[in-house]
Specification:
By secondary structure, the chain is of the alpha/beta class. 35% of the residues lie in helices and 16% in strands. The longest helix has 17 residues. The site of iron/sulfur cluster has 11 residues, from loops.
């Protein structure tokens, strides 16, 4: 377990607060009910109401006896975070800014496409890593999200899209990507509990084949993630030399390219039908040369890989520029010629600052704007 988890632990429920049943694993829920003197099948019934039906009010859980519902409501609750802002982009992308019990905020984004609907889930408030191109990395406050705060993002999105009970077919949310705010492998334990809840067939029922965890390359946790959770892996690569990666992604100094790619080579469950996605943000004059493309091909040798080329999304005050369209195309063509699938990701939701790497809580943005206004006023 990483040292970060303790320092940045989510706050505990206040002692006088009703205990939240959302975010408990099946075993924890059963133990909670056993402590109330209830039989194990009660946990199964509650699970169904919470995760299949999306119900938050015990009164609506009509398969439970009236007496049990009333007793439960005295000591327990099924809580959602408060939706502080819900926005819809011109292109149909949706963003929810969630206010957590301690006032911290995180964002969740839904991206509808022709053949799928992807929910981009956050794992931390902010991020301790400071990748130079990423807005989340400039947020000063950081803490881990609890399992409830992670899984509740899916439930809030289902609330917003009117997608209860969990549909068997024709879903709006088909895929989940841990690509929102934060580094999921620095909060592995809580992410794992939340993803196991998401995968449970009697609840949210999202297949592990439809869940992708994106990491900046936290090498010591990667193998465990594959072995225990068996979700798809995406790796934020973004550079082809240690020199450039050290600069734009300081985590590279700890886990350099060779170590990272060797770990990818042995990621459990990888094969040609199930490849590792390498994310590569196109930064003008930094990582977008033909030499970079050739080096990338060499680096990925022996790894069942696809490359997602992401046009850099600027944010207020960002230092980099996005590569030109022609440069991106040339880069993609070189990879294609080497038989590496390399789609260019379309930028979505940029009018509501919902695109990759732009997530940052709005109160942080406001504070920064206020600091800048004060600085200008002084000048
Ligand atoms: N911390 C994890 C997951 C969240 S970031 C990670 O880094 O993988 C999701 C993706 O967005 C990552 O690939 C990240 O590198 C990329 N990203 C960050 N800032 C970006 C920006 N401004 N433009 C485009 N992509 C960006
Ligand atoms: Fe954190 Fe990922 Fe942003 Fe880097 S790119 S600062 S790891 S959220």
């Amino acid at each position: 377990m990483s040292q970060h988890a303790d320092v940045f632990a989510p706050p505990r429920d206040a002692p006088d607060e009703k205990r939240n049943l959302a975010g408990l694993s099946r075993e924890q829920l059963a133990a909670e009910l056993a402590a109330l003197g209830e039989k194990p099948f009660r946990a199964k019934q509650l699970w169904h109401w919470i995760y299949h039906r999306g119900v938050t009010d015990f009164a609506e859980m009509t398969t439970l006896s009236k007496d049990f519902r009333a007793r439960l409501a005295e000591t327990h609750a099924v809580r959602r975070p408060e939706v502080a802002v819900a926005q819809v982009s011109r292109d149909g992308t949706r963003k929810w800014l969630l206010r957590l019990a301690d006032g911290q905020e995180v964002e969740t984004v839904y991206i509808p496409e022709e053949d799928r609907g992807t929910l981009c889930v956050s794992s931390q408030v902010g991020c301790t890593l400071t990748c130079k191109f990423c807005h989340t990395g400039t947020q000063r406050l950081v803490r881990n999200l609890s399992p409830a705060e992670i899984v509740s993002q899916i439930m809030v999105a289902r609330d917003g899209l009117g997608e209860w009970p969990s549909p068997a077919e024709g879903r709006l949310i088909t895929n989940i990507v841990l690509m929102g705010m934060g580094e999921p492998l620095y909060n592995y334990d809580n992410v794992a509990i939340a993803m196991r809840i998401a995968m449970d067939r009697e609840g949210l029922s999202v297949s592990k084949r439809k869940i992708t965890l994106s990491t900046s390359g936290v090498v010591p946790e990667m193998e465990r993630c594959g072995r225990e959770l068996d979700v798809n892996l995406a790796v934020s690569l973004h550079a082809t030399t240690d020199e450039v990666r050290d600069w734009i992604m300081p985590i590279n100094k700890k886990y350099p390219l060779k170590m990272l790619l060797d770990t990818c080579r042995s990621y459990p469950g990888t094969n040609n039908a199930r490849r590792i996605t390498f994310e590569y943000v196109m930064l003008k004059g930094v990582n977008d040369s033909e030499d970079d493309a050739q080096r990338l091909i060499r680096l990925l040798k022996g790894i069942p890989a696809k490359v997602n080329l992401i046009p850099f999304n600027p944010w207020p005050g960002s230092f980099f520029e996005c590569s030109d369209a022609a440069t991106i195309k040339r880069f993609a063509d070189i990879l294609s010629a080497a038989h590496i699938s390399s789609p260019v990701r379309a930028t979505r939701g940029d009018d509501i600052l919902a695109a990759c790497g732009q997530l940052k809580s709005s109160s942080e943005r406001k504070k920064k704007a206020e600091r800048e206004a004060a600085r200008e006023a002084r000048a």
